[in-house]
Amino acid sequence: MQVALVGITGYAGMVLYQLLQNHPAVSGINLYDHKLTKASELDQVVPIFNGNQTPVWPYDDDAIIKDNQVVFFATSAGVTAKVAPKYLAAGFPVIDLSGDMRLKNERQYLKWYNKPAAPAKFLRQSHYGLADLVSAKAQTYVANPGCYATATLLGLAPLVQNNLIEPDSIIVDAKSGTTGAGKTPTPSTHFTQVDENLQIYKANRHQHIPEMMQALKRWNEQIPAIQFMTTLVPIRRGIMSTIYAKVRADITEQMLTEAFTQTYQDKPFVSYTGNQLPDIKQTVGTNQCAIGTVYNPVTNTVMVDSVIDNLLKGAAGQAVQNFNQLFDFKETQGLKLQPFLP
Amino acid sequence: MQVALVGITGYAGMVLYQLLQNHPAVSGINLYDHKLTKASELDQVVPIFNGNQTPVWPYDDDAIIKDNQVVFFATSAGVTAKVAPKYLAAGFPVIDLSGDMRLKNERQYLKWYNKPAAPAKFLRQSHYGLADLVSAKAQTYVANPGCYATATLLGLAPLVQNNLIEPDSIIVDAKSGTTGAGKTPTPSTHFTQVDENLQIYKANRHQHIPEMMQALKRWNEQIPAIQFMTTLVPIRRGIMSTIYAKVRADITEQMLTEAFTQTYQDKPFVSYTGNQLPDIKQTVGTNQCAIGTVYNPVTNTVMVDSVIDNLLKGAAGQAVQNFNQLFDFKETQGLKLQPFLP
Amino acid sequence: MQVALVGITGYAGMVLYQLLQNHPAVSGINLYDHKLTKASELDQVVPIFNGNQTPVWPYDDDAIIKDNQVVFFATSAGVTAKVAPKYLAAGFPVIDLSGDMRLKNERQYLKWYNKPAAPAKFLRQSHYGLADLVSAKAQTYVANPGCYATATLLGLAPLVQNNLIEPDSIIVDAKSGTTGAGKTPTPSTHFTQVDENLQIYKANRHQHIPEMMQALKRWNEQIPAIQFMTTLVPIRRGIMSTIYAKVRADITEQMLTEAFTQTYQDKPFVSYTGNQLPDIKQTVGTNQCAIGTVYNPVTNTVMVDSVIDNLLKGAAGQAVQNFNQLFDFKETQGLKLQPFLP
Amino acid sequence: MQVALVGITGYAGMVLYQLLQNHPAVSGINLYDHKLTKASELDQVVPIFNGNQTPVWPYDDDAIIKDNQVVFFATSAGVTAKVAPKYLAAGFPVIDLSGDMRLKNERQYLKWYNKPAAPAKFLRQSHYGLADLVSAKAQTYVANPGCYATATLLGLAPLVQNNLIEPDSIIVDAKSGTTGAGKTPTPSTHFTQVDENLQIYKANRHQHIPEMMQALKRWNEQIPAIQFMTTLVPIRRGIMSTIYAKVRADITEQMLTEAFTQTYQDKPFVSYTGNQLPDIKQTVGTNQCAIGTVYNPVTNTVMVDSVIDNLLKGAAGQAVQNFNQLFDFKETQGLKLQPFLP
């Protein structure tokens, strides 16, 4: 299968390219980039791929559709909002790692991304691909979830779907490394600023909030809102989403652990470790989400520790998982990755 | 003034020694250590003090009382529980950085520290020295607060003392660097384990929980409990205590910010920065606590970001501040420190 | 093929286990450990392999020989010096990641390792497996090179083998992350000590010096000695060996680059990048050694920058490469690894 | 004394400002900046000085001379080359942290800095202020040495001045943290790039090479050149300059250590620690240079390990030391700093 990849210059595109090279169903990868006006070579475009002279083509919808059977977009916000309708109209399979086609509501997109949304009729055709909970099989357009949204929603699903917590009590204190902030050098990602520091950012303004609310409300319409905060920590890769919620009056600790066990027992990419709380390190390098829980009877609060590699399960790994589902390949194909230990 | 310092081998003792050397009221520092059986020299006991041949004496209560006017204990749990009564009986001033004399209740100490407490009559004579909110003036025995407790209580005080939040809604997600975990090499403080990782530890079991509850209940007896979690982050120094609470129905955002402003406007060592959320870096190297707040009307939640240098405001700096109060020196004496920028 | 692995508890053993699991010629891995007295399970012995209940057996030569076709030792110094003779006597294939069987001279081993060596007759039968320069094909006992030795010897080989530099002018300033220092927690690997620090260690005393001299002298008997220094840097994985040497009077810059090009042009695991100096990051996660060179006409000095992942090319990766050579598998089998980017 | 500071926006200016605030001879600090066109406030110009409303004025030579008794320039290359003549003509004291007035030779400046130099007659009037080896007393214009130059020259001085080493054998492998690379965000100082990485940069092209050669030749005209390499390491502050040289035939190890001892025994800011090799950490936070040496009889090579805090001894600290010398204050005034331990 020939696959197209748009956006190799970003971190997620770079990792996705590595995964696709090892995927048994992929016979060739065609690279495209919006910034090019004429064909170039990969190590010219991304110097770290030193010696790799794979061609990179200027972005071209028609060429992508003609020469490939699927396209992955690892582009920044605003790109696919414009081009998604063409692919949807053509019925051409797309896996979109950007946030453009995740929200069903145009105004929500405009509010949180501060850019014009794709027309609502196309937004409605997009599938929100939280791959461990819903399959992309037979879909055309997959909106791959955001990194924070993935860790947080997988941590919340058993509680919210089974109505185990007070609906208005969800508080999420999420931590991420610098690859989540993108490749462009900025004052807040300068080594001198990140190192030996913790920085809270986008307080109550993170653009993953509406996609989480959209999913949570679909699972349980009683959830009114979530308190969601993000802190930049001095690591490169990994997200820890620490989730707190008050447990409903009639719910026991055993019901909590059973909900997690049942939700994830057959899921190859989610590990529920009970009250053994996972470190970030256990998942970095893999497509795994590891989840631990601790119930505190004194405060009647459940704490969920959900960790992922933001570039794999939170981006490129889940994209490949959606690709596998969409084409009905074995779900784990190309994703048998070992954690980057020690 | 001659001062005694017991426990130079730990991180807090090391930093306290540096502060006392620069304190204008201190004419000499006598060092004592429990592990010695005969006198040694500082750079033999703590190699990093290369070239410093100040004597270090075996621990000896009588010598301390005879040759000094005050003693600082920077010792681990279990040491001062045994010796505090002697100093209290003698009316000799003590500033105790350990947790031994913070709790008024013997059983609480036994439960959280798993060691026998000092007798209750002595515990009652100890002053819990949260120096920015209560003065140690004319006290004999000051129990210097724990690092997490300091950051968290200073962040909560305006809310709890002014009854602005729902009493059962407090959730604290606190993060600390490795100096908070002590100097002894362990698997969980090995560079290979800490680096590029986040580790939740002592979930619901951190020994600073009871001292926080003791203070909170004194401020507002309606507070039933707090949810308190600690995560080890790959930095050396600094604590960020991220605090969440539901705001009471009749309370406005302005009332929240006014409470912080009024509580701290005359406090030289607490900076309230409104909704400019402080980074850890702004306080590292100083005795400052910096606090920012953001109110979220969607969830009716206030988030407090309270940051300190765990070895200064969270240990040695606050100890000197208590020393200044106890002897009625100017509060900022010996503590005009600049943040370690950039 | 059934393979035995002794020493899963160390960093190199852990990574080797991951590689062997993905190796197409390996049908089963039997784990053995010297510290066990009865069989256990992997996640009991190494908690990071959470959920993996593969049995780990007490070390037993006879069982290893009976149940496997090859054994990998990822053990610390002193272990294989004792057991190597038995395997050699039995003609059973061994790949030994420790330093015990690298030196041909018993007294050298005793001097640098401070332990008794294996008998000289067995040392002579061991093959020093610097896999990119000499094949282990048809060998019985492969002594896998040390991590520093690998990076340094690959950087020096074209210069020394082609007699391009002044023999007494070699200076190596090597830098390594903490995984090179092993898993046991020590004061010098405590996060607080490593972080924001550089520490020179084992000045002129590093045990890889004699194995490098043994190889260099074999290539060019004029080399009298090398100046070799090691600095611990705050990273987990990776070695950079920065090598300096005076260029011989009649040698041109072009002759230098040609020597590197010719030595490595057909080597799948060594990349010569000319005067593009490689970062450590380009090799971490792979079995690659990347080498760049810069000639300075002002000082008549060539600087070689040789970087590897110390746990892969410097340990487990090269071990698998030797395994492939020994059994005449394709050299790259099980080693098509992508760098851990970004 | 009123002092002017130009360039508070850079790292060195920031730290210099902190030092001058604590200097007993400084009654007021007037801040000026080239980028301003009208007066501003410090926390507007440098947000980290949150709450500090000290005015910052547009740069103005005449105002500086009229309102101050000395000016410190912490500006980037190219600024003082233009304005130095005016101050020299006026006989107004300047301490210049930039590289503009360090080289005596106009063409050398043009070659290494790629900018036009100040006229040679002014360059000749500038004093190269390597403060531990030569006093700035009664000078007008002090060119404060570069950070790498300071660590390297202090490490080499005893060897070169006493003619103990082979003149053409000097090799310097210097390592620096990111504050040495400046505040402007770039791809090579992005956290994701620096973290877990080592990067060699400016191979044989570092602009501190000519100022080192100028000093070395003055000390010993036989020195033809030095081999000087720089590696960026994942730390914020600190330089380690690792220096190698062949020892002259008639020189003993004792003569080496005596040369260091004698050169530095009365110097308050240089510590010679013999063969105890200093870590970077011992000097960070102070104006100290710590130097250790190890002689290797096998290679007849001396290795010098010279460490400093690049922003203090390598910039702002040495600038204050020069200020003290220039005005004949006690050399240690305002510089009694403790290392930032642990």
UniProtKB/TrEMBL annotation, chains A, B, C, D:
<dbReference type="Pfam" id="PF22698">
    <property type="entry name" value="Semialdhyde_dhC_1"/>
</dbReference>
<comment type="function">
    <text>Catalyzes the NADPH-dependent reduction of N-acetyl-5-glutamyl phosphate to yield N-acetyl-L-glutamate 5-semialdehyde.</text>
</comment>
<keyword id="KW-0521">NADP</keyword>
<protein>
    <recommendedName>
        <fullName>N-acetyl-gamma-glutamyl-phosphate reductase</fullName>
        <ecNumber>1.2.1.38</ecNumber>
    </recommendedName>
</protein>
<dbReference type="InterPro" id="IPR000706">
    <property type="entry name" value="AGPR_type-1"/>
</dbReference>
<comment type="similarity">
    <text>Belongs to the NAGSA dehydrogenase family. Type 1 subfamily.</text>
</comment>
<dbReference type="InterPro" id="IPR036291">
    <property type="entry name" value="NAD(P)-bd_dom_sf"/>
</dbReference>
<dbReference type="InterPro" id="IPR000534">
    <property type="entry name" value="Semialdehyde_DH_NAD-bd"/>
</dbReference>
<keyword id="KW-0560">Oxidoreductase</keyword>
<keyword id="KW-0028">Amino-acid biosynthesis</keyword>
<dbReference type="InterPro" id="IPR050085">
    <property type="entry name" value="AGPR"/>
</dbReference>
<keyword id="KW-0963">Cytoplasm</keyword>
<dbReference type="Pfam" id="PF01118">
    <property type="entry name" value="Semialdhyde_dh"/>
</dbReference>
<feature type="active site">
    <location>
        <position position="147"/>
    </location>
</feature>
<comment type="pathway">
    <text>Amino-acid biosynthesis; L-arginine biosynthesis; N(2)-acetyl-L-ornithine from L-glutamate: step 3/4.</text>
</comment>
<dbReference type="InterPro" id="IPR058924">
    <property type="entry name" value="AGPR_dimerisation_dom"/>
</dbReference>
<dbReference type="InterPro" id="IPR023013">
    <property type="entry name" value="AGPR_AS"/>
</dbReference>
<feature type="domain" description="Semialdehyde dehydrogenase NAD-binding">
    <location>
        <begin position="2"/>
        <end position="141"/>
    </location>
</feature>
<keyword id="KW-0055">Arginine biosynthesis</keyword>
